[in-house]
Amino acid sequence: MPNRILSSLAGLAAAALSASLFAAAPAAAAPAPERVQAATTTVSAYAGSPQEALNNKAFYDAVMKSALAKQAKAGNRLAAVTVRYRVNAPTFATQISRSTQIWNSSVTNVRLVQSTSGYDFYYTEGNDPRGSYASTNGHGRGYIFLDYAQSRVYNPLRITAHETGHVLGLPDHYSGPCSELMSGGGPGPSCTNAYPNSAERSRVNQLWANGFTGLSGTFKTIR
Known about the structure:
It is a single chain. The chain has 223 residues and is an alpha/beta fold. The protein has a domain at 81-213 and 215-219: Collagenase (Catalytic Domain) (3-Layer(aba) Sandwich). Helices cover 49% and strands 13% of the residues. Residues 1-44 and 214-223 have low confidence and may be disordered. It is globular and about 45 Å long.
């Protein structure tokens, strides 16, 4: 009798252990909570890649070509090149307005103007594991995507101003200091600077001054 009881108890214990392991399996495979996952993907999104650099360059080229085409058609060869944008990101409307003010007060050869039609690029928003980024369809139109999760970890105004910097021709430089806008998330979430430094301002002015050569009818790729 005691052996039978022990055998029964052992069987029950084994069944309980098997059940607990089975029940625990889905929990172990479940995705991390949104907040934790967002922090992980946001940090990795700032690592950069050759493909991201090429995409940023293509975006700038497309916007440059689109803006210069409009300017040439209007016969305006004297004023700063006007780049028109549309806002389809209501959550970031304040940051978009502020970042364009920052850029317009920082450079002289290009001006960002909000428009609902005939725009060269637009801002949009949502969730993406890549974080925020600039993209183009290669046909004179592009967009800046602003990521919800990333903006909860990093300063949203800095993110917006940084991505707008790609429109104006600046590449990422994640190893730079906080004072360098295009260092993005490299300095960490504590960095809130949303202003380009003197070298970045000078580079944008140089790029868009050179862009005036495109008004003759031949659009040149600025390197």
